[in-house]
TrEMBL record:
Class in the EC hierarchy, top level: lyase
Protein name, as recorded: Low specificity L-threonine aldolase
Presence of the UniProt keyword Manganese in the record: no
UniProt lineage: Bacteria, Pseudomonadati, Pseudomonadota, Gammaproteobacteria, Enterobacterales
Organism of derivation: Serratia ficaria
One MF annotation (Gene Ontology) recorded for this entry: L-allo-threonine aldolase activity
Residue list for modification N6-(pyridoxal phosphate)lysine: 198
Family per record: Belongs to the threonine aldolase family.
Length: 338
């Protein structure tokens, strides 16, 4: 069995999750008749304190639908230079929504400086796109956005007439790292997403949460972008199982990432900032060494996206024993390539 450290998207549904999927009661979700989808959305509402939630096939589509629901053609959203919904989602908002992104360089802690955001807001002038939205990401590269910053960003958007969206692909990792319930984080946003298919271990799916009126707009955009599903309860059951069983255990992933960080440091591997705040760890290595490490590890059953800046993610399919093997192999590799 391969030890896959490339991402937490590689997790496979457990036997118990598969059983929940097999037993799922289903209906036609386009009609709103799938009881398991409805139960999943209701659980997201309960956990978040928002008025409504919508199940979508992917995090990319959930972010796209959020942006399309917040902004009109010719509008603009403020977003981090390294944010997923700016850099890694094929320019969907611009291409499909004619929404202009205004990227902002983040500080070292992942926050977008409020002064830079204020300077980027366009005046009410026919020459400019209309600034409508601030989009944050939590976590960003494994960094947990501080609660105090979220509160400040929330106040900032109220003062400037903007909406605030959080790409929460790993927002439960942030909640577990801060040891607070999800509600404590998302009280400082209008809308947010949850990815079910990363550390939570579901095979597919994301949730978009917000007000009743917003989710009604999002429902139309979900249909328009091809996200209307029929007997989706089979998939929603996995997400429901994940929310009920796989949130608290994210702490294990965080602990494993911190342990791996300490072990690699003891081997002389350079750890990039901020270290293992959650389940994400970055390390730096010479390009020539990185080019050899990836294939060498693959031959020995370990998958790593090796590069000068290497990202490693721990998840529910990787345990401490697996990581002990990784460290042992890494030690051997460094000895052979000294």
């Amino acid at each position: 069995m391969l030890i896959d450290l490339r991402s937490d998207t590689v997790t496979r549904p457990s036997a118990a999750m598969r059983e929940a999927m097999a037993r799922a009661e289903v209906g036609d979700d386009v009609y709103g008749d799938d009881p398991t989808v409805n139960a999943l959305q209701a659980e997201a509402v309960r956990l978040s304190g928002k008025e409504a939630a919508l199940f979508l096939p992917s995090g990319t589509q959930a972010n796209l639908v959020a942006l399309l629901s917040h902004c009109q053609r010719g509008d603009e959203y403020l977003v981090g230079q390294q944010a997923h919904n700016y850099k890694y989602e094929a320019g969907g908002a611009a291409v499909l929504g004619s929404i202009q992104p205004q990227p902002i360089e983040a500080d070292a802690d992942g926050t977008l400086p409020l002064a830079k955001l204020a300077a980027a807001i366009k005046p009410d002038d026919i020459h400019f796109a209309r600034t409508r939205l601030l989009s944050l990401e939590n976590t960003l590269g494994g960094r947990v956005l501080p609660q105090a910053y979220l509160q400040q960003a929330w106040r900032f958007t109220r003062e400037h007439g903007l909406a605030l969206h959080i790409d929460g692909a790993r927002i439960f990792n942030a909640a577990v790292a801060l040891d607070v319930p999800l509600k404590e984080i998302v009280q400082y946003c209008d809308t947010f997403t949850i990815c079910l298919s990363k550390g939570l271990g579901a095979p597919v799916g994301s949730l978009l949460c917000g007000s009743e009126a917003f989710i009604q707009r999002a429902l139309r955009w979900r249909k328009m972008t091809g996200g209307g599903l029929r007997q989706a309860g089979i998939l929603a059951a996995a997400g429901l199982y994940a929310l009920e069983h796989n949130v608290a255990r994210l702490r294990d992933d965080h602990d494993n990432a911190k342990w791996l960080e300490q072990q690699l440091q003891s081997l002389g591997v350079e750890i990039a900032e901020p270290g293992a705040q959650t389940n994400v760890l970055y390390l730096r290595q010479p390009a020539e060494l990185a080019a050899r490490l990836g294939p060498w590890m693959r031959e020995r059953g370990v998958l790593i996206s090796s590069g000068p800046l290497t990202r490693i993610l721990t998840h529910l399919d990787v345990n401490r024993q697996d990581l002990q093997k990784v460290v042992s192999l890494w030690r051997t590799f460094l000895q052979q390539h000294a």
